[in-house]
Amino acid sequence: MLIIFDWDGTLIDSTAKIIGSMQLAIAELGLPPIADDAVKGIIGLGLPEAVATLYPGTDVARLDQLRSSYSQYFIAADRVPCHFYPDVERVLDHLRDKGHQLAVATGKSRNGLNRVLSNLQLTDYFDASRCADETASKPDPLMLHQLLAELNYDAGAAVMVGDTAFDLEMAANAGVASVGVSYGAHPVDRLLLHKPRRIIDRFEQLLECID
Q1: Which residues have CB under 8 Å from 7's CB, separation 6+?
Q2: Which of 15, 84, 134, 147 has the fewest beta carbons under 10 Å from its own?
Q3: Rounded Cα distance, 23 and 142, in Å
Q4: CA distances, 10 to each of 29, 44, 59, 83, 161 (Å)
Q5: Could you give the CA distance from residue 185 to residue 37 in angstroms, rounded to a whole number?
Q6: CA distance 179 to 170
Q7: Cα–Cα nearest to 51, from 75, 72, 28, 31
Q8: Same domain for 139 and 177?
């Protein structure tokens, strides 16, 4: 089976860092204040789509400034790497040992994902990955279609694991089963709108879904 993971909020506990970096960028540019929950709500989108959602109708140049400022704050904060959620490393190793292939589908940029994989010494760990700046942003199914084609899987032999409605909607759009996690960015009631096979509260529960 091919198991495709979102990154931030699913494998890595980075939600607070994302919110903090965005709030610093907003303050630096003097943009109208936005609640933390609003920032949390756009986690999972590609960065251009995220800032446009936060500030609809804002001119492109201003949104580009926000993107750039956020990226600088996040890269600086990420010098101290985020931790995996409990049991993530053990469960991923178990799934690999069982012969499953693992992939990442993320709203991060390619540079951002490569940086964090290098910091964690996981550069060659996943069989494939797709990032929002090299394909369509979630919930468009393109990144899942590309991963399925690259690794030669049918949609029925794959599952998407994510913490946001964008992850689960993308899976539904691609005809791929999904598992939601309750501990990430989006509330469970929002996840349930996209009919995941299951919502798990701890990462180790994924083994029950797969095995």
Answers
A1: 104, 106, 107, 108, 113, 116
A2: 134
A3: 30
A4: 30, 10, 32, 11, 7
A5: 9
A6: 12
A7: 31
A8: yes
Residue where a domain stops, chosen among 43, 77, 111 = 77
Residues in the chain predicted with pLDDT less than 50, given as ranges, are none
For 111-160, what is each residue's pLDDT tens digit?
999 999 998 889 899 999 999 999 999 999 999 999 999 999 999 999 99
Token pair of 195, please? 């009919």
Among residues 154, 62, 157, 169, the alpha carbon closest in space to that of 107 is found at 169
Looking at the structure, do residues 144 and 185 belong to the same domain, yes or no? yes
**H-helix or E-strand spanning residue 11:** none
Contact 148, 155 (CB under 8 A): yes
Cβ contact 81:120 at 8 Å: yes
Q: Which domain holds residue 45?
A: 15-77
Co-location of 29 and 97 in the same domain? no
Residues 202 and 78: their CA atoms lie apart, in Å, by 24
pLDDT score for 112 = 92
CA distance 119 to 187: 29
73, 177: one domain? no
Full-model pTM: 0.92
Backbone φ and ψ of 199, nearest 5°: -110, 125
Nearest CA-CA partner of 210 in 97, 130, 133: 97
pLDDT of residue 81: 83
Domains: count for the chain: 2
